[in-house]
# Entry
Amino acid sequence: MRINTNVSAINSQRMLGKSSAALARSVARLSSGFRINRAADDAAGLGIANSLRGTIRGLEQASRNAEQANSLLQVAEGGAMQVEAILERMKQLATQSASDNVNDSDRTLIQAEFAELQSEITRIVDTTKFLGNTLLNGSLGNQIDSANSTLAGGSATITGALADTYTVAHDAANELLSITNAAGTLSQSVDISGTSGINSFNFTAFDITVETDGSFASGTSSVNGDVVVTGGNTSFLVSVSGDPAGQDAVAFGSLDLTLATLGIDGDSLSTKAQAVTSIGTIDTAIGTVSTAFGTIGAAQNRIEFAAANTDVALENFLAAESVIRDADMAAEVSELTKNQILQQAGTAMLAQANALPQTVLALLQ
# Structure
């Protein structure tokens, strides 16, 4: 018998260590609900689960994108409904003015209301916005054509500028910055005297912001050139298949319900002849609004289907990740019970193994 090396105790201690480690893993899995709590638990599985989780996060945001896109379209639809209601009233006024049962004095009163309704359409179009984006003036989805914009000494951003070419220029003293549209019918100036370096100057008439660079100094340097804004589609990212510029996005054309596009900006009901002409142009305008409703409705329906598909994909990806990452609680409870028994038995056997060398004392008696 040997007492310097207690092989039985060493073996019992090793087995007790293994059961204690297994018990700790079971406790960790049951407390976290995850089968994989560290890379050593399943390195390959963790890599796959993380890849799935990235896709899941993208799908969750894509689903929210679809919800917000539908909200945007609902706001646009609400504004278009009011424009439609105003056009119906305009049609009523035009029909009244085109009849000889009213005189010129009556037509003057009719024209006063008609002009107010024209102004109200313009107000609705200009103020129907979603997160700063104007929805009904044809600017939604427009962007700066950087290849054809030649703005020197700075850069530009837009939030809702109409598709056009805008000229940026200075006065002689380089202290007044102005933007003018291509037709020369609209211009706005901003005082930049005493400014230098990086600055932002907002031109609210165009929804364009001009940003000067670090070398700019008013009075000595200038920002000039053209800002070319091109029309484009409005797109919403509703999937994450890897084609964000293509199949992952739902796009629709811009909505333009301005007086000029409706064709009623020059209409008047002051005379019978003008009223007769206005009846036809108002009918055309109503048709334009109906087309806008068609665009909005088609986009809403497509987005709803896209959102439903995204939600189904999200559910399936969550299930796939769960198979890899989540713990089977029933199996882990059984494993915990086994490891607890093994730990208790190992502790008892270690105590017995430690007591074995004491039998040597009997030889000394």
Observations:
- The first helix runs from residue 7 to 32.
- The chain has six helices and twelve strands.
- The chain has a mean pLDDT of 89.
